[in-house]
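[step 3/7] inverse_fold.run input=structure_tokens len=415
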């Protein structure tokens, strides 16, 4: 079988959004699932629309998700190849000069068809195609020309791209025929739509992968989410690492219908991946998002993460739910008598660890004949003055001395 070689071919005209990166992901998965090659090709021949920063944004977006490419090319460095092939066309009488540009001569009446791996049989007639420019007057090739020449040069076996390129494919086929080259397989994947079934807007989610990362989404969650926007595996399993996606991926399971972007689903994936990590493995990720976490020691930070992560949706939520471990909340203190009792109970605890705290407070509740939930509420108000995760575990995060001084402060304030 022919080796699978694919390319992700972005035009560096801006910051790639998740729809573009989904195309890159599918290319990566197609290549890697077949032990093939994944090429990054920067299509920078439109000098007017070229945005230099976007090359780095493209590379960073791929890297952060682990979509490492095997080879990289820039079309602006390959002008001699396009020039050579333009001469070939013109020698065959299939290209002519017009106002300083070169046009391809379209033979009318031709039927152009291909079997698309997503859309099935697709047909066009050349009658609707004008003689199109292949090399512009500035000497740079057009997208159509450079793309076909490079796909041939780089031995691309499958062209997987967004379906907005379907109407360009007949032009590409004309070029393949003119050169007597075999075209690759075409796979046009439907665009991701917004909840209103229209083109996904920036507000609805068409943002860059890097922005999602900055918002506290995990790369694994983004990869999993993007993979499922237009593809599905065989069974019901939903959580797939990049490696698992690679073994599962096949073009047959790419969807014909446009997927709808759903932020709730991304949030769901992110929560799942937050839960999958051990708190220790989340330390450095959390520290990127929180000043407080930065100056916190590993062990205590891991305890906090462990207690609050099922409430967090993104890494950026750390500060929102961890506040009580750094500063008391706003709720009023419990009655003085009850607060005094809480202090006495805490003072009796001999070893300051979760297990001993629980055993010893439970014992105190029994011996003093207290209502357990009322006593826990007293502790909550006196120490945290806000909602908390399970109270005994929450107490264990603080030092004993801090718990006592927080209670003393409550006693002072209480009536
Ligand atoms: N440069 C085109 C883009 O920006 C590539 C289309 C293709 O993959 O052929 O999407």
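[step 3/7] decode complete -> sequence:
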């Amino acid at each position: 079988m022919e080796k699978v070689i694919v390319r992700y071919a972005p035009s560096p005209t801006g910051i790639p959004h998740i729809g573009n990166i989904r195309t890159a992901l599918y290319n990566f998965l197609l290549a890697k699932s077949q032990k093939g090659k994944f090429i990054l090709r920067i299509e920078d021949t439109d000098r007017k629309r070229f945005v230099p920063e976007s090359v780095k944004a493209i590379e960073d977006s791929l890297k952060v998700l682990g979509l490492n490419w095997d080879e990289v090319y820039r079309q602006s460095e390959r002008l001699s190849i396009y020039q050579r092939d333009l001469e070939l066309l013109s020698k065959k009488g299939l290209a002519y000069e017009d106002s300083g540009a070169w046009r391809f001569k379209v033979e009318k009446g031709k039927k152009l068809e291909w079997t698309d791996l997503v859309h099935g049989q697709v047909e066009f007639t050349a009658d609707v195609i004008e003689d199109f420019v292949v090399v512009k007057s500035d000497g740079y090739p057009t997208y159509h020309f450079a793309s076909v020449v490079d796909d041939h040069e780089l031995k691309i076996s499958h062209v997987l791209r967004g379906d907005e390129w379907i109407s360009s494919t007949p032009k590409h086929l004309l070029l393949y025929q003119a050169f007597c080259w075999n075209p690759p397989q075409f796979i046009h994947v439907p665009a991701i739509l917004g909840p209103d079934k229209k083109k996904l807007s920036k507000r609805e989610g068409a943002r860059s992968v890097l922005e999602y990362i900055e918002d506290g989404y995990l790369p694994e969650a983004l990869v999993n989410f993007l993979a499922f926007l237009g593809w599905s595996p065989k069974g019901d399993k939903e959580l797939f690492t990049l490696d698992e996606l690679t073994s599962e991926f096949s073009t047959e399971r790419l969807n014909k219908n446009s997927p709808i972007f759903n932020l709730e689903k991304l949030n769901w994936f992110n929560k799942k991946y937050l839960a999958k990590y051990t708190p220790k493995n989340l330390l450095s990720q959390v520290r990127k998002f929180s000043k407080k976490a930065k100056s916190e020691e590993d062990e205590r930070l891991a305890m906090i993460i462990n207690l609050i992560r099922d409430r967090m949706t993104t890494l950026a939520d750390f500060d929102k739910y961890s506040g009580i471990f750094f500063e008391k909340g706003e709720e009023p203190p419990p009655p003085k008598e009850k607060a005094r009792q809480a202090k006495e109970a805490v003072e009796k605890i001999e070893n300051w660890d979760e297990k001993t705290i629980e055993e010893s407070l439970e014992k105190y509740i029994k011996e003093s004949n207290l209502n357990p939930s009322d006593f826990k509420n007293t502790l909550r108000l006196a120490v945290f003055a806000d909602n908390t995760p399970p109270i005994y575990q929450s107490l264990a995060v603080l030092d004993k001395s801090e718990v006592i001084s927080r209670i003393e402060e409550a006693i002072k304030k209480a009536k």
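[step 4/7] annotate
Residues 78-189 form a domain with the Rossmann fold fold (CATH 3.40.50.620).
The radius of gyration is 30 Å.
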